[in-house]
Amino acid sequence: MADTAVHPAASSEPRGPKPRKKLSRNNIIIYGTLLVVAFYYLLPLYVMVVTSLKGMPEIRLGNIFSPPVEITFEPWVKAWSQACTGLNCDGLSRGFWNSIRITVPSVIVSIVIASVNGYALANWKFKGADAFFTILIFGAFIPYQVMLYPIVIMLREIGLYGTLWGLVIVHTIFGMPILTLLFRNYFTSLPEELFKAARVDGAGFWRIYFQIMLPMSLPIFVVAMILQVTGIWNDFLFGVVYTKPDLYPMTVQLNNIVNSVQGVKEYNVNMAATLLTGLVPLVIYFVSGKLFVRGIAAGAVKG
Amino acid sequence: MESSISIRDLSLSFGAVKVLRNLNIEIGQGEFLVLLGSSGCGKSTLLNCIAGLLDVTDGQIFIQGKNVTWAEPSDRGIGMVFQSYALYPQMTVEGNLSFGLKNAGMAKDEIKKRVARAAEILQIEPLLKRKPAALSGGQRQRVAIGRALVRDVDVFLFDEPLSNLDAKLRADLRVEIKRLHQRLKNTMIYVTHDQVEALTLADRIAIMKGGNIQQLASPNEIYNKPANKYVADFIGSPSMNFLEGVIDISGAPQFNSDVMSFDISGYEFVDGPTGGPAWFGIRPEHIVTGELLANAPVQFDAEVELVEPMGSDTLVWAKVEGVPMHFRMDGQAEVRSGDQMRIGFDPARANIFNKETELRI
Amino acid sequence: MSSERPNGLFRNIPAKVAAIPMIITALVVFMGGSLWTMAYSLTKSKLLPKWKFVGLDQYERLWSTKRWVVSIENLFIYGVCMLIASFVIGFILAALMDQKIRFENTFRTIILYPFALSFIVTGLVWQWILNPEFGIQSIIRGLGFTSFEFDPLYNADIAIYGILIAGLWQGTGLIMVLMLAGLRGIDQEIWKAAKVDGIPTWKTYLFIVIPMMRPVFITTLVLVAASIVKVYDLIVAQTGGGPGISTEMPAKYVYDYMFGGQNLGQGFAASTMMLLAVLVVVIPWAYLEFGGKKRG
């Protein structure tokens, strides 16, 4: 065993952990900065919530940072069911349901197509596949504005311009680069032996996809879903270009409500409407936490 | 002689997890100590504590007689070499060697002298202007050693420095590190999980498990007189044969198991003959065959099950009375599975451990 | 398996079928669409695209339009400030978060949440906070500093900085997360080596870690730059381009001319300019990132 002789000096200092002040200068700087930053980031959310719970008279009198004296949920009700865009006065609810009708099929279609595509690129390379993929990734950087009008023409040609399915196609197209990259990288990271073993066992393209790849890829599908749901829910440009007013997604409707020039500005209703629009992505964000971070990191840091 | 490094009652816990438990080690001037153990045994953690990269929970660390328990790593008089080399990738080799010295405000001439000396010792002069990315693994590790060398310190710490290299290079660099130690005569602490590295390099080996030191002794003693069953099992490849049974000391000491019993009067007990349930261990290379049987007081008939020719020697897996045993034979030995053969050993070379405590008896 | 090797075109059929959407998107929409827009930017298209070639007339008109020039200036100011500020703040925040702090998850959640929001939401919130009658200006005046002035959205000279504040609020979290991922990717032994060498933390960051993170920086830079060029929703929601034309941006110019002004040619020319701006950033990067590796 080790030398266990008792040393005369063993009891004297320094001994044990290095003494550290709880409030060292470093810690004050670190936590101080982070607290100030956190304050700056939370402030707008706080202002929105507080304002949306106040009545108009109180808003005109007080400042926007003070908590409501009298909490009222009327602005929320009004934003949901009565706020006006132009002549329509049936509130944001219509936009909300439109956004749901747009988001659900767009997310499903885009993920199905991109995952199969990513799988083909990762495991079934064919000649020219890399060239198409490169163009696709390049496409992610092309400003949408360049492709806006040609897509209008294409959609018009197939009779889908101004329809829900037209917009679904647009979301599928513009989601494709990032999703394909995401899935391709994920499938490439799976052990190739697995794929080879399945081929030796005689499984084909679809069989391997459904029975081997899919069951192993749940997390990446969740990441892709988070990415797409927030992305499509938050879209404004495509909604405004490719749909008609009765199909406008929530973001477009929100902007029309808040930035309409008619009538008195009801800030509390506006804030409630804004919060309502932000609610879906916020809930997804707070619930998904690390997966959300993983999604944007995977999407952003190259493959 | 004053010890170079003295570790006294050192403990480290992360929350409720005790990583190091009350360790005491004295390391002599110029000694080469190897910390050996499987992953998670605390060997790297101990090294990081000595380097000052981890704050200890209790205890003290002395380096060259100075209490450095609270000192910064750079003030401890140590140099350290890492598994991943940890070279600064955007600096040249020269930059890597001199960055720390420059930062400490050393005179340019002195820096130049030290870099030149380190480069000469490690034979990396032609590489000085290159960047790490343009070096091979072995060259990178030399540069990493050089970075410790230029600090001109008394103590070198190595954290699994050869683990990222392929087998051939590892053997070469191992020899070089040994040569370096002979030339510089610094105190060196070397962490590894590779027992060959440990046995070949060390003056003393500390075998660690679960934050404790199982045995701290010379390679020879560790190999021949392991302090407990864990050490006996850990050291040696292929590992030791173990037989389960009872020691009977009513007459001449005798080992009895369900299927065999033999006389062990040649065995040197630690505290005189001790009876009771025990593990009887014998290394594969201490089991003999053929002519050597003349010197083997204990002999059995074995049935060969499997033969592994390894070039320099042959490893035979056999059964004795249904109990598996493996042993080494000459590389030229002609054995086939199914063969019957006579084997034997000298109990003097055996290791016997108490069944409960697993300590050597 | 048949002994004859099948024709290359018919091998691997399901994979090729699966790739059809990608091929159509890449060739027809991305390449075809871009080329179509570039071609028609050379025509006199008004309400409808018409193939009446006029050379570079649209571009001449574009660059002599004050609104476009202001848009480009704004994009430049916004882009440069946004890049510098978001990188500096994002990196500092990431470095702070990397100090083994408590509540790291909480801080990260707070700093990143605006990124989950729509630009429309961001724009509207900051429009409200920067409103001089209710927002920060009125609060600080209420505290007694009656001459305090902070009304970026109502002052044409500084309105673009009001947009910048909102843009930073939304985008810095992303940079921080990417930088933090980069920092976490640095070999911990590098830090240990620097400590043994006695190099202070700030020097380790400056001379060792930041140079090591160059690939992360460049990739992030390209991503952020490409997204800055596209800025549209934020402007529409926060200022609508005003006051006057002081916060106009190229993307908005394109939209307004294409779908509002019934002047497609101008829209095509402006969007082609946007494409050029992005290519100037992306092509050298792609060359460095992917072209260089194959050779070296």
UniProtKB/TrEMBL annotation, chain A:
The chain crosses the membrane at residues 28-49, 102-122, 131-152, 164-187, 208-233, 269-287. InterPro entries: MetI-like (IPR000515), MetI-like_sf (IPR035906). Residues 96-288 form the ABC transmembrane type-1 domain. Keywords: Membrane, Transmembrane, Transmembrane helix, Transport. It is a multi-pass membrane protein. GO terms for cellular component: plasma membrane. Residues 1-20 are annotated as: Disordered. Pfam families: BPD_transp_1. GO terms for biological process: transmembrane transport. Gene3D superfamilies: MetI-like. It is found in: Cell membrane. PANTHER family: ABC TRANSPORTER PERMEASE PROTEIN, GLUCOSE IMPORT SYSTEM PERMEASE PROTEIN GLCU. Belongs to the binding-protein-dependent transport system permease family. This is L-arabinose transport system permease protein AraQ. It comes from Pseudoprimorskyibacter insulae.
UniProtKB/TrEMBL annotation, chain B:
Pfam families: ABC_tran (PF00005), OB_MalK (PF17912). GO terms for cellular component: ATP-binding cassette (ABC) transporter complex, substrate-binding subunit-containing. SUPFAM superfamilies: MOP-like, P-loop containing nucleoside triphosphate hydrolases. Keywords: ATP-binding, Hydrolase, Nucleotide-binding, Transport. Residues 5-235 form the ABC transporter domain. The keyword Cytoplasm does not apply. The keyword Nucleotide-binding applies. Its EC number is 3.6.3.19. GO terms for biological process: carbohydrate transport. Belongs to the ABC transporter superfamily. This is Maltose/maltodextrin import ATP-binding protein MalK. It comes from Pseudoprimorskyibacter insulae. The gene is malK_1.
From TrEMBL, chain C:
The chain crosses the membrane at residues 20-42, 75-97, 109-129, 158-183, 204-229, 268-288. It comes from the Bacteria. It is found in: Cell membrane. One of its GO terms (cellular component) is plasma membrane. GO terms for biological process: transmembrane transport. The keyword Glycoprotein does not apply. Residues 72-287 form the ABC transmembrane type-1 domain. InterPro entries: ABC_transporter_permease, MetI-like, MetI-like_sf. The keyword Cell membrane applies. It is a multi-pass membrane protein. Keywords: Cell membrane, Membrane, Transmembrane, Transmembrane helix, Transport. Belongs to the binding-protein-dependent transport system permease family. This is Lactose transport system permease protein LacF.
